[in-house]
Specification:
about 240 residues, alpha+beta, Rna Polymerase Beta Subunit, Chain: C, domain 4, 3 domains, eight-stranded mixed β-sheet, two-stranded antiparallel ribbon, about 25% helix, about 15% strand, elongated, transcription, DNA binding, DNA-directed RNA polymerase, RNA_pol_Rpb2_3
Length: about 240
C-alpha cells in the first residue's frame, strides 16, 4: 500500500538561502552584461577597443542593488542587541517569491509538524497573520548543501550511547522510522543507558521500548527550541 506524501513534512520543504537567491540574480546580471558586450562588439566592428570600452559593471551592480532594495524578504538587520541580531539572521519565512501568501496559507501549513523537532522552533513565531509562516531555526539545526534542515543526534548501539564521537546530523527524511530517546536518559561513564525502559519517539508516536532498540538520542534537552527560547529558565 502506497503512502500519501505529506506536503508539510520537512523532507518536502527546502530552504532557499540568501546565497542561492543572490546567485540567481547574479546569473541574470551576467546574462544582461554579456548581451550588452555583444551589442557593443557588433557596433565597433573594425575599431580597436579594449575590454574597458565593452564592459559596464553597472549592469551587474544594478541587479544586485535592486535585489536588496526591492525583494519582499529584504530587511534591515535588527541590531538592538547581539541576541536580536543572531535571532534575525536565523529567521525562516514561508512567504516571499516562490512561497506562500498570508491569505492562501491554511491551518495545516502554519501548524507544528513532528519533523520540526530540533529543526524549527515551535515557540518562536510571531502572533497575528504571520503565525507559523515565519519561524526560527532551532539551537543546533543547520541547513545542508541541498537546502534541507538537519539536526544532530548521538548514535545508540545495543543500549550504549556514543558519547565519545561527534553527533550525527540527520535530515527529516533520514530520521524516518528511527527510534530516538530524549537527551535526559541516564547513562553511566561509558554511555550505557541505565533504564530498563525508555520513552522514545518515532515519527509522531511515543513508544515505550527497551534501550537496545534505540537508534539515536537527542544531544541536549534544549534541542527543540530556538536560541532565544532556550534562554528562558524553567521553560514549559
Amino acid at each position: 500500500k502506497a503512502e500519501i506524501d505529506d506536503i508539510d513534512h520537512l523532507s518536502n520543504r527546502r530552504v532557499r538561502t540568501v546565497g542561492e537567491q543572490l546567485s540567481q540574480q547574479f546569473g541574470v546580471g551576467l546574462a544582461r552584461m554579456a548581451r550588452t558586450i555583444r551589442e557593443r562588439m557588433n557596433v565597433r566592428d573594425n575599431e580597436v577597443f579594449t575590454p574597458i570600452d565593452l564592459i559596464n559593471a553597472k549592469t551587474l551592480s544594478s541587479v544586485i542593488n535592486s535585489f536588496f532594495g526591492t525583494n519582499q524578504l529584504s530587511q534591515f538587520m535588527d541590531q538592538t542587541n547581539p541576541l536580536a541580531e543572531i535571532t534575525h539572521k536565523r529567521r525562516l519565512s514561508a512567504l516571499g517569491p516562490g512561497g506562500l501568501s498570508r491569505e492562501r496559507a491554511g491551518f495545516e501549513v502554519r501548524d507544528v509538524h513532528y519533523t520540526h523537532y530540533g529543526r524549527l522552533c515551535p515557540i518562536e513565531t510571531p502572533e497575528g497573520p504571520n503565525i507559523g509562516l515565519i519561524s526560527s531555526l532551532s539551537v543546533y539545526a543547520k541547513v545542508n548543501s541541498m537546502g534541507f534542515i538537519e539536526t544532530p543526534y548521538r548514535k545508540v548501539s545495543e543500549g550504549v550511547v556514543d558519547i565519545k564521537n561527534e553527533p550525527t546530523y540527520l535530515s527529516a527524511e533520514e530520521e524516518e522510522e528511527r527510534l530516538i530517546a530524549q537527551a535526559t536518559v541516564n547513562v553511566d561513564d561509558d554511555g550505557k543507558i541505565l533504564h530498563d525502559k525508555v520513552i522514545a519517539r518515532m515519527e509522531g508516536d511515543f513508544p515505550v521500548i527497551d534501550p537496545s532498540e534505540l537508534h539515536y538520542t537527542d544531544v541536549a534537552p534544549n534541542q527543540i527550541s530556538s536560541i532565544s527560547a532556550s534562554l528562558i529558565p524553567f521553560l514549559e
